[in-house]
Design goal:
Rossmann fold, alpha/beta, Dna Ligase, domain 1, 4 domains, 30 strands, 7-stranded mixed β-sheet
């Protein structure tokens, strides 16, 4: 265990605010501790000599040394109490009391002061506004919940105390046990990253699960979770699936890559398995805590009921797994072992009169097949099947072949005894076949997490000072946006751009055009006009003789469209041969939790219509950048589908990495779009640029 080991294995727990008053939180916590805790429980209350038969002390200073202090005093007294705890040398504190940042301005000020006191005394504080903590190895229930957890190897954290009480009630009924349980509360000091790190170091924790509403420091969480998931799986339910954060975004990237996309990308990069419901959370945890990972994705189904077998097959099709293709040898053996009317092709239907021996033989043959990585045993209750005997066979075959097996013993009380036996050997039973497949799917997903390689970001040779100078131009603007007038920013980071220049009079436009071979493209340059082509602010294929009039026309159209817009001039740019190329977009939106969120996808005018994009949290290396390209639906276009000449994918991958380095080097960049980034056989060219800059962070 790590620095929080004493929080979960204290020898002495003090309850500051312990009382005998019926219905009081201080009484509930003391009762929970007094009934089960293997260590010493110390009530602290200046108004009592004893509480619930235990000797009480007037303050922390007069009490025996405490390994853990649980604070249940009124909000105005909390800060003074925390300081007394720090003075006494106790390092671990759980603040149950509410009335902090969640309650408004005064509470927020109180919480800020709590943070200062904790820093002064180097305190590990859970809460405030917490239900408390539990640890089953020492029988500690330092919460005011009505239920204690069963023993188990799952460690569980939740931002909602009410969620914990509901889950424990359900888990106890289901026979699911826990190692440690933490109600995070307001996360003033200790947050989800601290507990992921702690439980990752705990050899007794097999699976980390959690219910989170937000993640405070996303970049730190990703780094920590990525290390932990090399040995310990993490499964989370993240609530608040909303795109509300994207509503205020000014860039394409910001509009598409809202808050939910950031969590999806961040949790994926962290190696976290994300569950969409509480049921899915525990279905995954039950498999991960007791079964080995499958060596392959092939699933065998053994059943005595055709309908449930089909349902299970459908569930496999909906998962990341696949139905195993049996070898000819396996099919021959099944033909010999099964009656003529049985189905020996996956799913194996041993038919309704299958007894224990037939079930066992079918499962044995299936697990022996090299194409089978895992199996689901699905059984409807019949007069010839005793579930307890079937459970014994499943346990035996799982151990013989060392492959993951889950069961779906359908029925009610008839299945309970068998379910208990299976659980003792780490085999979860599910009533619904789809949930059984979900358990196997979680095992396969975690296997993929462990096998994933993550390369370090490439450090390209760039001109950082030049880039800084360009970004600082925003300080001379009324707003905080820069546009194509800042294309040199991309040049500074090695991202190719076509030859061109921004000019502020038609005569100079003509000179620039004449210096460029062939026709040119002309665009209005204004930080206030987003969709230039929609207002006629873009002219394509302009010859030298047409440049003067084209200049006047795009400026006039811009002024008519938005009279108060700042017009910086007109960009004169070499016109590219776009035949055989694909317009893509690379961009970044800085998420408040996870930081720079990179985006790649199909670009041009279709970016917000098709939304064919992939996202990652920067910084990223080459493998992650290549995954971004491969993930979009339009990837075949880039790789030469239907006779097209392939685009230079390596150049796209390098551009994504260079953009990753740029936005990591400059946290002041809040949003950035390169749209389009034209990708062709000869490389890439960035045609247009928009970015938003935090002027206070330059």
């Amino acid at each position: 265990m790590g620095r929080l080991s004493e929080l979960f294995a204290p020898e002495t727990v003090g309850v500051i605010g312990a009382t005998e008053r019926e219905g009081a939180v201080g009484r509930a916590i003391l009762e929970n501790l007094h009934q089960e805790f293997t260590g010493e429980v110390v009530p602290i209350n200046p108004s009592h000599d004893a509480v619930l038969g235990l000797e009480a002390y007037p303050d922390v200073a007069s009490a025996p040394p405490l390994d853990l202090a649980v604070v249940v005093v009124p909000p105005p007294v909390v800060l003074e109490t925390i300081r007394e705890i720090g003075e006494a040398g106790t390092q671990h504190v759980v603040v149950i009391t509410a009335g902090f940042a969640e309650s408004g301005g005064e509470g927020a000020r109180r919480e800020a002061e709590l943070r200062e006191i904790a820093a002064e005394y180097d305190l590990n504080v859970v809460g405030p506004n917490s239900l408390g903590v539990m640890s089953t190895p020492v029988s500690m229930n330092a919460t005011f919940g009505p239920e204690s957890a069963r023993d188990g190897s799952i460690s569980f954290m939740s931002q909602s105390g009410a969620f914990i009480t509901a889950v424990l009630d359900w888990a106890n009924e289901q026979g699911i046990g826990f190692q440690d349980v933490v109600s995070l509360g307001n996360k003033t000091i200790l947050d989800e990253t601290d507990f992921v790190r702690e439980w990752g170091d705990d050899s007794e924790t097999d699976v980390i699960i959690g219910y989170l509403e937000d993640i405070d420091a996303g970049d730190e969480f990703i780094r920590t979770a990525r290390e932990v998931t090399e040995e310990t799986p993490i499964v989370l339910v993240k609530s608040g699936r909303t795109d509300a954060g994207a509503q205020a975004a000014s860039s394409h990237t910001g509009a598409i890559a809202g808050s939910e996309r950031a969590y999806e990308a961040g949790l994926e990069q962290a190696g976290v398995i994300r569950a969409s419901s509480v049921q899915e959370l525990f279905d995954a945890a039950r498999s991960l805590s007791g079964l080995p990972a499958p060596e392959s994705d092939g699933v065998a189904i053994v059943t005595n009921a055709g309908g449930p077998g089909v349902l299970t097959t459908d569930a496999v099709g909906d998962s990341s797994l696949r139905m195993a293709d049996f070898t000819d040898e396996t099919i021959d053996k099944l033909h010999e072992a099964m009656p003529d009317e049985a189905n020996v092709y996956n799913p194996i239907d041993a038919i309704g009169d299958a007894d224990i021996d037939r079930f066992g033989r079918a499962l044995e043959i299936a697990l022996a097949d090299p194409n089978v990585g895992s199996a689901v045993v699905v059984s409807a209750p019949t007069a010839v099947i005793q579930y307890d005997k079937l459970a014994e066979v499943v346990i035996e075959k799982r151990q013989d072949f060392e492959k993951p097996v889950v069961t779906c013993l359908m029925g009610g009380d008839r299945a309970r005894a068998a379910e208990t036996v299976l659980r003792e050997f780490g085999i979860p039973n599910y009533f619904d076949p789809a949930r059984a497949v979900g358990g196997l799917d979680a095992l396969a997903r975690y296997r993929d997490v462990r096998q994933r390689t993550s390369d370090e970001p490439t450090a390209f040779d760039v001109d950082r000072e030049r880039a800084r100078e360009i970004l600082e131009r925003v300080e001379r603007r009324d707003g905080n946006r820069l546009g194509i007038e800042s294309m040199a920013l991309l040049d500074a980071y090695g991202i190719p751009t076509p030859p061109g220049e921004i000019v502020d009079d038609p005569a100079r436009a003509r000179e620039v055009a004449e210096a460029i071979e062939g026709d040119v493209v002309m665009k209005i340059v204004s930080p206030d006009i987003t969709h230039k082509s929609d207002i006629g602010g873009v002219k394509v294929g302009v010859s030298d003789d047409e440049v003067y009039d084209a200049y006047e026309d795009v400026v006039a159209r811009a002024r008519n469209y938005q009279p108060d817009a700042t017009i910086l001039g007109v960009q004169v740019q070499a016109m590219l041969d776009l035949e055989g190329t694909t317009e893509t977009i690379v961009g970044m939106n800085r998420d408040p939790q996870f930081g720079p969120l990179l985006l790649f996808g199909l670009g041009g005018i279709f970016v917000e219509i098709l939304e064919d994009t992939s996202v990652r949290v920067a910084p990223i290396g080459e493998s992650a950048a290549r995954e971004m390209v491969d993930e979009i639906r339009a990837a075949p276009l880039l790789r030469g589908a239907r006779g097209r000449e392939p685009a230079d994918v390596d150049a796209i991958v390098e551009t994504i990495q260079r953009l990753s380095q740029l936005v990591t080097d400059f946290p002041a960049i809040l949003e950035l779009d390169v749209n389009p980034l034209v990708a062709g056989p000869d490389g890439v060219q960035a045609i247009d640029l928009r970015l938003t800059v935090d002027t206070e962070d330059l």
